[in-house]
Design brief:
The protein is mostly helical and about 55 residues long. The protein has two helices and no strands. It comes from Pseudokineococcus marinus.
Length: about 55
């Protein structure tokens, strides 16, 4: 996994967490859900990249 991919996935997870918190604080269900979705997508991409790396070894 390239360093750029790791950073991109981590940023997506961090942004998702921020969206989730802001959505919860402002009672914005859509923003809260989007934040959770972004976190899940970032984590899934991270796992996919880890699997690719393991398959190369």
């Amino acid at each position: 996994m390239s360093a750029g991919d790791k950073i991109k996935n981590a940023v997506q997870q961090t942004v998702g967490k921020a969206e989730e918190v802001v959505g919860k604080k402002t009672d914005d269900a859509e923003l809260h859900a989007q934040g959770q979705k972004d976190q899940s997508m970032g984590a899934a991409r991270q796992e996919t990249e880890k699997a690719k790396d393991a398959a190369k070894d």
